[in-house]
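The authors assume throughout that readers already know how a fold can be written as discrete tokens. For illustration, here is how one protein appears when written out as sequence plus structure tokens.
>
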Amino acid sequence: MASYKAPLTDVKFLLNEVFDYPSHYQSLSNGGEATPDMVDAILGECARFCENTLFPLYQSGDEEGCKLVDGGVKTPAGYKEAYEEYVAGGWQGLSSLEEYGGQNLPASLGLMKQEMMGTANWPFSMYPGLSMGAMNTLQLHGHEDQRQTYLTPMTEGRWTGTMCLTEPQCGTDLGQVRTKAVPQEDGSYRVTGTKIFISSGDHDMAENIVHIVLARTPEAPKGTKGISLFIVPKYLPDEQGNPGDANGVSVGALEEKMGIKASATCTMNFDDARGYMVGEENKGLECMFTFMNTARIGTAIQGVGPAELSYQNALAYAKERRSMRALSGKKEPDQVADSLMYHADVRRMLLTQKAVAEGGRAMLYDAAQFADHMVCAYIEEDEKQADQYDDKLGFLTPILKGFLTEMGYEATNLGMQVFGGHGYIKEHGMEQIVRDTRIATLYEGTTGIQALDLLGRKTLLMTQGGAVRDFTLRMSNFARKHLGDKAVRHYCWRLLRLAAQWNWLTLRLMVMARKDRDMVSSAANDFLMYSGYVYMAFMWARMAVAAQQGLRQGGAQSEDFYRAKLATAEFYFERMLPRAQGHAESMLSPSETLMKLDNDHFAFDY
């Protein structure tokens, strides 16, 4: 059986010694109550909930799965009770506005909560996670009546939310959306259409489910310019704001999936269902990006969380399992064989997992500070500052989602490999982590879509390389600041060279794309992975600096902890960062290597 322990020591190291979250929180208009003691209490209580309630349901939920019973989804045993405990703990409204029932704490605390929950039980965490995206969309784009009607019960956790984009004929290409919304005399709309792959589309854990639906009005322009956004509740609210009459919303099917089986993935039918427009007509996609970006950052956690969970269990197994003798001589002569920990290749796998989990967590916590500033700017109605932080976070979002989910999937496969044949057996839980993680590179935009967004939209089209210049300036300023420290100087020089190379690669691609538009698509994946490796290198350098300071000045953690951080940073720079150079070389290869083979010549026997 697998096990889980919340990595609070690492979390506190990041919060207090790497990113100085105490000072960060005091700089926020909603951060006054996020004192170190309060943050420790919240994280400690969240850890207990995740370890004692959520994780014990992880494997059993996979075995039982969701079931479609009498037209509704029944979640696995224990899920409804766990959700009731989640609601009673006030977790859903942790980072939401007080006027709608929230606690008005910084958004980053919600992300830290979500990371622990996602590591302990990702399928469960998707139910409240989807709600957070719907809540953010309504908070930013809904009018006050809609916020009072829907946002308050969702913040309290009594109602949940979904995002309904995909249809049978279209996934990423939302310009093909066919769902119709016909205006009514009372200002509402009648929504008709079918949506597929709807996470948390139906379940038995909440009073009501609020669907956020993309649809077209009758005279809407074709393509993405003609899409509007609508609230379509499962039950229409009555005059007291409680769930009333059933709306024209039903579950058409429940998908049978490779993983995350305890998370309901539904085909949803809207049959003349009453809906209410959010934001302006034909501006639905712009509003929906609030939801999508929230979901993409949330999905990035599904790279970090499974890497952490798989690492914890692989490490425990490697310490106990004995096989052969170490090549350098017997290490445990009293035992029949040496522990797997004495074999260099096993250590390579474990260190890769550790580097991904801890480096990815640092990337998330770094980006979360931008999210905090962006949310505060929206609350304070400082549109200019909100847009600035939105742009910074927007550049990082595809890197976080694309790179971390790819690396997380690699890490879970390595964890399964450490177990050998036992990793393939269900009882150990390692194969479930692999299955559950595979979807992360697919939903909320595949890695290829994230790569196109990063290179084509965020880097070349919107900023003409400015986003890369801004990020590498931050990285370079950090490196120059610490060049005088002999212990970390080699990391700083590497960062400076990487910053220069990243800008040079961006310029080269910009020039090449002017003559060959296919270059953007052919280079995008390599550009994203290169960007991810460099970003993670920046984070490992920051952690190395903090660890050195902890050793010299007597930090809050043990000397062994700091030395382990330094050893892992060295592993990352020497063993993993070199991968970036392969991506750098590959991204500059002409698109002809991908495009010249005739479609009919890919195969000759079928």
